[in-house]
Structures are given as C-alpha cells and as structure tokens.
Amino acid sequence: MSVLTGARVDDGFGQHRRGDEAPMRRQVELPEALEATRDCFATSHLKEISYYVGGPEDGPPLVLLHSINAAPSAFEMKPLYDHYCATHRVYVPELPGFGFSDRSDRPYSPELYANAIIAFLTNVVQKPAQVIAFSLSSEFAARAALSASERFLSLTLLSPTGFSARKLPSGGVGRAMHGVFTLPGLGQGLYQLLTKRPSIRYFLQRSYVGEPPEVMVDYAYATSHQPGARHAPYRFLAGQLFTRDASETLYDKVEVPVLVLYDRDANVGFDLLPAFVANHANWTAVRIEPTLGIPHWERTADCVAALDAFWAEQG
Known about the structure:
alpha/beta, 315 residues
C-alpha cells in the first residue's frame, strides 16, 4: 500500500505554459533564481508548479529539490545547478507555496509535497532521475521514492531532517501552533519579523561556517516578500510538514541507493544516522567538513566529488 494519501498523482501530462505568462502582483521584484529556462506545469490535482531546466537535452536527468523554511527557493540549489548543467539535464522545481509556484492559502502537508515530486518526475522529467533533496525536502523525496521508486535512479540527501533523537510535537500541538500563526495580524507580523534582512542574515549565519553570501540574503528577502509567501511557512513553523519517526516510517523502507551529505547543523540533529547507515546496505553517508547545514554552498567541490563517486558506483 502506498504511504501517500490525499490528492492522487495525475499519470498523464499536465497542462504546461511558460512561467513568464503567469502574471502576479508582487510586493518586491522577484528575479529568476537560476540562469535557466523557467516553465510551469499543473495537473488536475496540483496547482501551478514553477520549475527551472537547463543543460544538454540528452544529458542524464538530475532533479534538485530546495529545502523548506521561511524563505526557500530554487536559488538554494544554485551551486549544484551551475556545476551540473554542463553535463546533465538539470531540473529544479519550486515546491508548492514557494518561488514562482502557486502560493495560495491551502493545506500544505508532507503528502502534498511527495505527490508534487512524483507528478514532476512523471510529467516533466519523464525518465528515471538522480534526485538530490535538501533538509526537510529529504523526507518528501523519501516518501515519493516509496510510492514511485521507478522514477528514481538514486536519492541524495543534503543535511536531512528525520535523524534527530528529539521527538516532534504532537499533531494537536502543531494544529494549535498553526492556529496562533494564522490569527489576524499576529501571524503576518511574526512572518514579517522572521523575514526582515537582519533575521534572514542571522539564521543563515547559524548555518554557515563563514559569512553567508549577500546574494543569499537578497534572494531570501525577495522570495519571502511575495503575495501568499507566509502560508506554507506557517505549516513548517507549526511542525506540520515533518513526519514523526521519519527514520523508521520513511527512510527505513527506501530501496533505491541513498547518499547522505552532512556534518553539523544548528537546526537538525544526526544522532540516529551512523547506526542507521550501518544497518542499511543501500545507504552511504559522507561528512562534508566543516559545514553547518548548507554543504553544497560552502564545500561545493567536496559535495560534487562525493556525488560523482556515488553515481559512478551505481554504474
């Protein structure tokens, strides 16, 4: 039985149209995140999802999935896109609620994101792909791989959530927190506080050994100041996008080859990871040192070397 619930994934082709044909009133101008073609697709069950694509059309497909936080976007995956677009057909979707994708006020859930990933692999990529997921999106990608393993050649997780010994709050607590976040005035004020430039810089500094590039702050500020930008982050802040006991309920069942790139992280624990990898032959973990949660930005060459070696082993 599939671990996915909720919206059914459309097996046919969704409707496509150019991303720049979708007008949107913006509070701050949002530039393109990558030097790539941007397009959009939708299915009968999923609202419009924006994505970037570049690299040789006949190159092996590579899909990059950004993280989930108060201000994520495809820009988070820029170092890997810039490197691999010379040799791969690289796809970078912006998950529901972020970037140029639909940001309407609706229920956001792990199932929604997993279904979006499967729909993207099915309708857009159309071939089995190497998939790289960052932070919480690792859980969504693993959930997708459980239901549609044929769409994955392998899965790489960058600083994944789900390996901390700390327990998540109960569903009731999460719903109560979401209710507080959505109170008129209060929630919007909190989100505005979290997405001020000093706040963005503070959180990035906690995840960076050195000083985070100012372009990261600039893009996070821009993408967090779009209409509807707060809706999906409210679910994240309330803990409603995490899966309880993810290492057991999700990761333990993944059968495709998995690589984990990690070191230390101010927001994510890896207490359970060493023992988990030791007990799963299809899993490999490589420490990218020294990093604090964004290894593909601070140690791009080390990440690329680990990825290339991992893919080479898969043949």
